[in-house]
Amino acid sequence: MIVIHDTEVTFANAIRLFQDPSRRVSANYIISAGGQVVQMVSEENIAWHAGNWDYNTRAIGIEHEGYAWVPGSFTNAEYKASARLAASICSRWGVPMDRAHVIGHYQVPDDHHPGLYGGESHRTDPGPYWSWSYYLSLAAGYAKALPSPPRMMVDPVAVNGLDSATITWTPARSCHLPISGYRVIAEPGDITVTLPATATAVTFGALEAGTAYTFTVTAVNPDGTDSLTSNLVIPGRCNAVSLSAVPYGGDVSLFGAAVGCANPRYEFAFLAPGSSDWTIARLYSTDAFFVWQTARNSSGGYVIRALVRDAGSPGTYGALIGSFDDYRDLLYTVTATS
C-alpha cells in the first residue's frame, strides 16, 4: 500500500526531524510545496510512519509539506509530484491506484486499541482539504504511460503428500495490465506446468518420495514476469517438527506441530534422568496434544520427544520406539514435591 501523510512542519524541518535517530520516526519520501521529492528511506526498507507495525512492513509512506486543517495547504505542484511518484510505485510494485491501496494516515488502525484509527498516535492527516479524487486521477493517468509488469506478493507455500506436493500462492498484481497466466517449475526435474491467470494453486504428482523439492511460481503479462520460490518440501515425510511444554497445575501440557505432510500423526516418548531407555507415553495419534502427568515422577531433567510421520507413511527412519519422519526433543526439569 501507499500511506499519504502531511508534515505539519516545513519541508526543511521535516527532513531534519527524519534525520534525527532520537525521534524514532521516518517516511520513505517527503514532497515539498514546490514539488521537490526527497527520499528518506529506501522502498525495500521499513519506514516508521504509520503508527502500526503491520502497515509499516507493507506500505510506502509519502509525507507532503502542509497542514491537515489549513485550507489550500497543498499545492498543485505538490499533487503532481506526488502523483508521479505514486504512479512509479504502481509500475514497480503493482500497488493499485485506488482508495483501498492508497490511504490516508487517518485510515490506519490503532493495533493496540481496536476501533481507533490514525495509528497509535491517532493522526488525522492528510486532513479534509486533501483532494483524493484529483490526486488519484492524476496518479492513474501517469501510471498508464508506465510499464505494468506483474508483481508476486508473498512466497508460495508448498505442502507435500506421500508422492505429491501442492503449491498455493497469493494472486500477483500489476499496475494496469492484467496478469496473463502463471508458470510453475518443480526442481529437481525441471517439471513445468502453465496455468491460467485465475489459478492460485497446483498439485504435482508422481514425485519421488524422500527427494527435496522447491517450486518457482512465475507470473506473466505482456510487460514482463516476476517469480518467487516456495519452501522446500520432501514428499512422503513430515518436516520441521516443533514441541512446546506448558506447566498446568501438577501436569505438563505438550504441544507438537509439523509441516509438509497431509495427515501428520504424533507419538510422545520420555527419557528419564540417568536412563538410556525411552518410555513411550502415547503411541501415534492424530492428536498433537498430550498431557504428561508428572506427579509420580522423580526430580531431574527429562528428555521429551515428539515423533511425527504421515498417516500413509511407514516412516522415513526407524528406531526402537517406532518409525518416524522427523522428531523434536525438549529438555524439561521436574521438581518433585512431597
Structure, explained:
Strand 11 (214-221) and strand 12 (224-229) form a beta hairpin. The chain folds into 3 domains: 2-144, Lysozyme-like (3-Layer(aba) Sandwich), CATH 3.40.80; 157-229, Immunoglobulins (Immunoglobulin-like), CATH 2.60.40; 239-334, Immunoglobulin-like (Sandwich). It has 4 helices and 19 strands. Helix content is 13%, strand content 35%. It has helices spanning 11-18, 53-58, 76-93, 132-144; strands at 2-6, 29-31, 37-39, 60-64, 102-104, 157-160, 165-168, 181-187, 191-196, 201-204, 214-221, 224-229, 239-248, 251-259, 264-271, 278-285, 289-293, 300-310, 326-334. The protein is mainly beta. Strands 3-2-4-1-5 form a 5-stranded mixed sheet, sandwiched between helices. The chain has a 4-stranded antiparallel sheet with strand order 9-8-11-12, with no helix packed on it. Strands 16-15-18-19 form a 4-stranded antiparallel sheet, with no helix packed on it.
How far do the termini sit from each other? Answer: 60 Å
**Secondary-structure element string:** EHEEHEHEHEEEEEEEEEEEEEE
**What is the approximate shape?**
flat
- How many structural units, i.e. domains? 3
Features:
flat, Immunoglobulin-like, 338 residues, mainly beta, 4 helices
Write the layout of secondary structure elements.
Layout: E1 2-6, H1 11-18, E2 29-31, E3 37-39, H2 53-58, E4 60-64, H3 76-93, E5 102-104, H4 132-144, E6 157-160, E7 165-168, E8 181-187, E9 191-196, E10 201-204, E11 214-221, E12 224-229, E13 239-248, E14 251-259, E15 264-271, E16 278-285, E17 289-293, E18 300-310, E19 326-334
Parallel strand pairs: 1-4, 1-5, 2-4
Antiparallel strand pairs: 2-3, 6-7, 7-10, 8-9, 8-11, 11-12, 13-14, 14-17, 15-16, 15-18, 18-19
Helix pairs in contact: 3-4
